[in-house]
Amino acid sequence: MRKNVIVVFGGMSSENEISVITGTMVSNLVDEEKYGVYPVYLNTDGEMFADKRLRDVSFYSDPSFRKKAGRALIADGKLYRRKGSRLKELCKADVILNCCHGRGGEDGAVAAIADLNKLANASPDLLASSLFMDKAATKLAARALGVKCADSFKICKRDYDKRGKMAIKCVETRLKYPVIIKPSRQGSSIGIIVAHDKNELVGALETAFAYDDIVLAEKFFAEKREINCAAYRKGGDVIVSECEEPALKREILTFQDKYIEGGKERTAAFPARISKRDETLIKGYTKLLYKRLDLRGIVRADFLISGGEVYFNEMNTVPGSLAYYLFCEKLGDFKEVLTDVIEQGLVERAVKDGQKVALSCGVINKMPAAHGKRL
């Protein structure tokens, strides 16, 4: 019997429409000879919609597409469509494939749905998704594994509101200008600003705090190269892609560079023209992070090369277009990669299903009624 794959995309972020492009692409590439495919769209309010027409990107140009698709729900391991006060079962769900970029999806929300419904997950789990959504926490984890990162530290809004001058002084003395200020839990360069002096730093912090209450202040390298490398797991082995070098048109790779002017034309070189030492280091770091932090599905690690050193920048647990272009020359060839990650997810779910979840000790039955008293 064919397994049913729920492809979830959209999400509660500024990357919602970009996620639709990824999600519709993936929905049409999953091998339908092996799997039933059910596209599920999450809008920016976190509402879920299900309809086969959601696989067609042109369907979203209709202002009433949500109403036509109908609200949906994943519960008890099944996908339902809401019809008034009633639920209509669409399918028994087996696997979730997460294509949400940013909050409300890439941050672990979709992984939590999979866990609660005991579904296989062909994407990173809750812990990894939450960790890598937080830039400050990501740097802590990477450094703990011996992966080199640019000097940085986090600033919490509650501390900045009380001791803002001290925070600015710390940035100036520890990092020195220029510095890059990032909302810790946002994606695609949203709210990220390079500051070259105190006035720009204050403005950058105010902008970043508008998006998040935790901000990462980091040393900025004016002279650098950005290098990306992707990975996924197949049959227990971690497959690492060749490295790519995106074309940098500005100080940083912006949302416009990634998506508005994106696609293959944003790649300066693939494979990236870097030294064998740097290539080995980047691929090694990517594999190390994937294995030691128990990643799943397809991820993309982003690095910087500056002053002869390689620095880990961030991990994208749901990369744009699932980074198919780093594994396949032709889009159609990506079908096999998707089959690999779906099958890997099913294997790992079977292992989980065989584990003990809880041990009943009967303590409640042995206790006298508390009658509202403290136990």
Automatic annotation (TrEMBL):
<dbReference type="InterPro" id="IPR000291">
    <property type="entry name" value="D-Ala_lig_Van_CS"/>
</dbReference>
<keyword id="KW-0573">Peptidoglycan synthesis</keyword>
<keyword id="KW-0436">Ligase</keyword>
<dbReference type="Pfam" id="PF01820">
    <property type="entry name" value="Dala_Dala_lig_N"/>
</dbReference>
<dbReference type="InterPro" id="IPR016185">
    <property type="entry name" value="PreATP-grasp_dom_sf"/>
</dbReference>
<keyword id="KW-0133">Cell shape</keyword>
<dbReference type="GO" id="GO:0005737">
    <property type="term" value="C:cytoplasm"/>
</dbReference>
<feature type="domain" description="ATP-grasp">
    <location>
        <begin position="139"/>
        <end position="343"/>
    </location>
</feature>
<dbReference type="GO" id="GO:0005524">
    <property type="term" value="F:ATP binding"/>
</dbReference>
<keyword id="KW-0067">ATP-binding</keyword>
<comment type="similarity">
    <text>Belongs to the D-alanine--D-alanine ligase family.</text>
</comment>
<dbReference type="Pfam" id="PF07478">
    <property type="entry name" value="Dala_Dala_lig_C"/>
</dbReference>
<dbReference type="InterPro" id="IPR011761">
    <property type="entry name" value="ATP-grasp"/>
</dbReference>
<keyword id="KW-0547">Nucleotide-binding</keyword>
<dbReference type="GO" id="GO:0008716">
    <property type="term" value="F:D-alanine-D-alanine ligase activity"/>
</dbReference>
<dbReference type="GO" id="GO:0008360">
    <property type="term" value="P:regulation of cell shape"/>
</dbReference>
<dbReference type="InterPro" id="IPR011127">
    <property type="entry name" value="Dala_Dala_lig_N"/>
</dbReference>
<dbReference type="InterPro" id="IPR011095">
    <property type="entry name" value="Dala_Dala_lig_C"/>
</dbReference>
<dbReference type="GO" id="GO:0046872">
    <property type="term" value="F:metal ion binding"/>
</dbReference>
<protein>
    <recommendedName>
        <fullName>ATP-grasp domain-containing protein</fullName>
    </recommendedName>
</protein>
<dbReference type="InterPro" id="IPR013815">
    <property type="entry name" value="ATP_grasp_subdomain_1"/>
</dbReference>
<keyword id="KW-0963">Cytoplasm</keyword>
<dbReference type="GO" id="GO:0009252">
    <property type="term" value="P:peptidoglycan biosynthetic process"/>
</dbReference>
<keyword id="KW-0961">Cell wall biogenesis/degradation</keyword>
<dbReference type="GO" id="GO:0071555">
    <property type="term" value="P:cell wall organization"/>
</dbReference>
